Amino acid sequence: MFLFISTKNPQKIHKNIILHDFEIFQKMLTAHFPKLLDNLILIEKGNTQIAFLAFLDGIAKIKPKVNFSHLNEKKINKSILLGDYADSKICLASSLNGENCTSTERVAQELSKMFAEHKGEVFAELEKSFLLVGLAADENSIHIATAPLGSRSIYWIEEDNGVMISTDLQFIKTMLGRELKLSERGLSSWLSGYPNPAISLFEEINVLPIGYRLLSNRAKIIKFWDIEPEDKVSFDSQTEYSERFFDLLNSSVANACDSEQQIIASQMSGGLDSTSVTALANDYLSASDKKVVPLSHIYTQSEKSDESQLIKDMLSFLKIDQNIQMLVDEGEDRDFLALYPSDLESPGTVLSPRYVKELALVKHAGADVLLTGNGGDEMCWGHSAAYTQRFKEGDWRVITEVLKACVAIGMSKRQTLSNLFVKPFVPEIVLKMLTVRGKAQNEQAVPIWLTDKAKSLAVEETRIDNPFDIKTDPVGYNRYESLKTTSTYNAVRSYEKVAQQFDIDVRHPFFNTKLAEFSFAIPAKQLIQGSYPKWLLRHSMQGHLPESVCWNLKKTTFDQHFGNLVRENASELREVLKDPRLADMGLVNQSLLLAEFDRVVTNPVASVQVDLLYAILTFSWLKTHFPH
User: Fold this and answer.
1) What are the backbone dihedrals phi and psi of residue 461, each rounded to the nearest 5 degrees, phi first?
2) 343-382, pLDDT tens digit by residue?
3) Domain spanning 2-178: which CATH class is it, in words?
4) Is the pTM of this model over 0.70?
5) Looking at domain 238-380+486-551, what is its CATH homologous superfamily?
């Protein structure tokens, strides 16, 4: 999606482009984006001109069903809603100049009526995924938003001549015709390991925060969705919690299965999240003539990452005979830099050739939808602070529960009891006097190689505005931080970027606003009990998953896989980390960074922590998009 809102008429948006001169604008599009010409809409609103590209390389997948060619000569006198709702490739519009602009879809008609009445407030009412641009003729206003937990980012830049808005950062850069200036705040946010998605990597570019909508002519952001700490849910029984959660997740999975194809592909590891989505999709589709085809990654070089037995258990339990299995850690998949080439959008958005192979297999299987379990951790994982919180609230039984859990998972009873039930009740000043190593509860841990300047930028200036009180609700506080800064967004955006070339929709049923609101409203005990994180998800999925998966205590991690991968590519990665520019900007202590890298690669059993991976990705991104 590309939108330019001009404040003058005629309007230059590039030194060689005058907006109202369609021939010149057409030449620019032909040179850089020839496929977009058929989707250009030019609208006049008084002295304002709006150039709208209905879809851009598949990002917004909108194929207008209405002929807009006459709009170049007529002013708007009715509201228009254009975009993508529930992954439907439709044009959503109310009547324009009478009967010329109507939708053939019932949902489009309803949405258009809602927008005409409520304008930008309508976004708060939409539960499914969307990317919408609304032009309200009666208010001379334009409203733009994407689903709060969706994967697409909306960028904009304010120039003297107007506002340029797009879901594609590269498109903005091309149309500006100049290099973008790096943002120290944005780089520090990524280098800290806690990237705030609302902080841009470029000084000139703004990015729409999660749960906000953009109001133009001059850009203004307005919050329309968030988690509200005061919203609480209390039921009388475990069954009621489980049934409500199951209904929400099942409904989200069913919506995500919407497709005209007979096959729905679903990523399925041996973990609880992807298996739950696959199982629910299998149940839903079995009632029709459609079916789910699981897609599983097989790790042969890292024993601790191998989930092949759990995958076999799932296929047998669900009675699925067709599945896709990919070896993902052999051959070309051992070249780190080739495996994770970054997109301009962010260091974490990687256009991996492995994802290309995976989506090609999905396409070959006859599917145009790929489901994932992304978001399961953010919605269902409890936090260890839940035990402390329950203890504070007078639930003394939690101590016995924790002691039993320590035995089940092999943790030190003494250390665990100290961390959960002693240190949280000792004032910070006393801990310091006793030389007990500890941090203030709300102090964000950052890598040792960040300079004081970068720490200040990362911790203070890019901090998430958290509505939860860490003292009274540490579980909500920490879960909210995770929801807003999770690295899962990297995988989500990476897959969807690559999927565009295959015309495949990658959908993530756990990233659902109603599910998120419910998971934050329930008691902390529902998220983690004893030795079982994701307690509510496990309890809800009983009977839908094999016992070996549903109540598996071992969470598969990929530390060993990434550790081996980094060690095998140590010389190439070290050269990348020797780039002096981030040190010259005063953001990185390069000696400390290289020392930590050397420590990891020289120890054959050392794991690679996420902050080191983020540093590698950030340096690689800089080299790729801003070479010397």
Assistant:
1) -85, -20
2) 999 999 999 999 999 999 999 999 999 999 999 999 998 7
3) alpha beta
4) yes
5) HUPs (3.40.50.620)
